[in-house]
Amino acid sequence: METTETTGTTGTKGTTEPTKTTETSAHHRTLGRSAIEVSALGFGCWAIGGEWGAPDGQPYGWGKVDDEESVRAVRRALDLGVTFFDTADVYGTGHSERVLARALGKHRTDVVIATKWGNVFDERTRIAEGHNDSPEYVRRALTASLARLGTDYVDLYQLHLSEGDLEAAAQLRDVCEELVAEGLIRAYAWSTDDPARAALFAEGPHCAAVQHCLNVMQDAPEMLALCEELELASINRSPLAMGLLTGKRAAGQALDAGDIRNAPPAWLPGFTPGAGADPGWLARVEGLRSVLTSGGRTLAQGALAWLWARSPRTVPIPGFRTVAQAEENAGAIAKGPLTPGQLTEIDQLLDR
Question: What class does CATH assign to 38-247+302-338?
Answer without folding.
Answer: alpha beta
